[in-house]
Structures are given as structure tokens and as C-alpha cells.
Amino acid sequence: MTPRATTRPVGTVTRGTTNPNRLRRMDRWIAAVHGAELRRAQGPVAVDLGYGAAPWTAVELLGRLRTAAPRTRVVGIEIDPARVAAARPYEREGLEFRHGGFEVPLPAPPQLIRAANVLRQYDEDQVAEVWSRLCARLAPAGPHGSRGGLLVEGTCDEIGRRHVWVALGPEGPRTVTFAARLASLDRPSDLAERLPKALIHRNVPGEPVHAFLRDFDRAWAAAAPYASYGARQRWIRAVRDLTADWPVTDGPARWRQGEVTVAWEALAPRGA
User: Fold this and answer.
1) What is the pTM of this model?
2) How far apart are CA 110 and CA 95, in angstroms?
């Protein structure tokens, strides 16, 4: 067994709120978008950072990633030692739990770090430092088209109906993804309350993310005739209209899942 880390963890204890199946939208996106990178790696490791008071999200992450990359191992990392002790009975082949924080105490760089609902309690001016620290821990880019590891950091509601996350590589932020259970959505800007810490305070006039959500609401309203075919068809039409003015990086296969992904540069805060 690999020795447990003994250095002082970096970070603070979160509320620990967690629910089964809460991160399903993020997990499915990771498996689809990052699955090839995981398959390419030798002994791929994914980290569930700050999994909370119960280990459900780490257990589920292992199952979902193994559908895309069967050799993937998951390490759940928590800064609260009591939570690590409570999770240890759930360890199995391919799944373990460790005490730690943003230093990510692993012997080798992981191919994935997922940090969901972790930075919500931090100040906005702390986000860049945490991102930089975590990105530095990712597996580097390599030959044969490898872009290196992926950090996925975002926020969702308590039962995972609405979720927004930022994807970052070793080089920094790449994209922002908005995902929702469309039947629960009145308008796309309902997702504003789930913006990650780097963006949530920037949803004000003059900031790109505010302009994006404004345009998304307008496209949603214009797509109202498609509502008779269902919320999914309305969403697809609205996103298709958005592509005229915004750098949407995915296509209909992801839009049908109630998602849309936009290049980070288009939504980055002014002056960032």
C-alpha cells in the first residue's frame, strides 16, 4: 500500500454537503471529452478532490470513468481526517482515499482532478492561486497529441440539476460548460446561480459572462416555437443561434445532453 501523506494539507475544510448522483452531468462530460486522454495514459489516475462527508461521488466517478477508460484508478482526497477514515471501508480495487488538500499528495501527476463545489467558500481573489497550484499537479502534455491532464472545477445544485464548470489543462483555463436538466429550466440565465467562484461575481453588466447569459436568454426566447417539440429541441436551437456570436466548442451530440461549452477566453473576467 502506498504510504499516506504526512505533510500539512493546503486548504480549509468545506461544508461537506454531498448527495448520490449529484455530479452525474460533470462525470458524463469528463468521460466523453477526456476519455481518450485517460485511455492513452499508462495507469491513469483521477482525483476526486474534496469529496465531502460521504464517499459517494468518488465511488460513482470510478464507475463512470471506467466505462470510457477501464484501467482508470480514482483517489478521493479530503482535508478532514474524519471523512477519510469514514470513507476507507469503501476502498476497493481501483479506489482509495487519502488525507490532503490542494497539494494533491500523490506520487505521480494525475490525468484528472475533479473539484466540485470546493471553491464556493473561498474568496474570488483566491481562485487563481488554487487553479495554478492544481494545474501544476496535472500530468503534462506529451507526444502523440496528448494535451496532458485536466482540472474540472465547478458548482452545482444539491441534486445536480444545474451545473457550471471550468476545464483547465496544465497551461490554464480552456472552456466553460453549462449543463442542466432542461425540464427544470425556465431560461438559461437560471444557471447564473451555479457559476463557479471565478465567474459568479462577474455576472454584471460590462462583463462577458453577463453578456453571454443575456444573449442565451434572447436565443432561448427566439427558439420558443421549438418548445412544442420539447425542451431539448428548444435548447439545441438556442445554442445553434448562439454559435453565430460566441465560440461554442462542442456540437449537437453534447447539446442534446443539455450542455453547451464555450471557450474560456470569451467569458473570462475583464482584466483577468
Assistant:
1) 0.94
2) 14
Cα separation, 125 vs 204, in Å, equals 17
Q: How far is CA 256 from CA 30, 211, 233, in A?
A: 16, 23, 8
Surface-to-core class of residue 91, CB atoms within 10 Å of its CB (0-12 exposed, 13-18 middle, 19+ buried): middle
Q: What SS3 state is found at 23?
A: coil
Cell numbers given for 258? 443539455
Q: Which residues of 56-86 are buried (b: 16+ CB within 10 A; e: fewer)?
A: bbbbbbbebbbebbeebbbbbbbbbeebbee
CB 175 within 8 A of CB 147: no
- Residue 34 near residue 40 (C-beta atoms within 8 A): no
Query: Which of these, 120, 194, 193, lies nearest to 164 by C-alpha position?
Result: 194
* pLDDT tens, per residue, the chain with 272 residues: 344 444 788 877 776 677 889 999 999 999 999 999 999 999 999 999 999 999 999 999 999 999 999 999 999 999 999 999 999 999 999 999 999 999 999 999 999 999 999 999 899 999 999 999 999 999 999 877 789 999 999 999 999 999 999 999 999 999 999 999 999 999 999 999 999 999 999 999 999 999 999 999 999 999 999 999 999 999 999 999 999 999 999 999 999 999 999 999 999 999 76
